[in-house]
Fold Ysc84 actin-binding domain-containing protein.
Amino acid sequence: MGNLDKECDKAGQILKSFIEKGKIPAHVIAKAKGLAIFSGFRAAMYLAGAGGSGVVVARLPDGSWSAPSAFSVKSGGVGLAYGVDVYDCVCVLNTQEAVEAYMKSETTLGAGATLAAGPVGGTADISTKEVKPIWTYTKSRGLYGGLTVEGISISERSGINAEAYGSKITATQILRGETKWRSTTLLPEVLKMGEGKSVV
């Protein structure tokens, strides 16, 4: 199994856990322009820092999902007072601009007040909630919500993408649907389940 497949399996498990706990409504995923799913850690004692990795997929014009693009996360300013905190995060990308941020070789989450905690629960009424470019869902130590990911830096993992797709390819090309992905991972089925189209 390649590195991208491992990232996609991990992302599938993360997304599935949020869906099964009723934390992300199906209509939020169904209307999303993209999803970025990652796990990370925050460490702080004398130096605060964070790291992690994940994948992003984008909605194509025909309504299907693009192949996944791998990325890494890092931050110098997010942390707990002592020890290490491991967390999972799903970013629902509600605008094309939010998706395009992941097409850059590097970007920072939360610039310009674009982040907000997403609506929770299967009956959440999103018509009354202001739609921010990015809605975030987080889980840390088994607890959902309450974690901010503002200021985290996202970097494209071009080596893993090239390994997976067999050639030098950019995140932009992947997220615009210019390449196909032969997946044997959990992620495509979980994406369908998240939209209410099928059950894993």
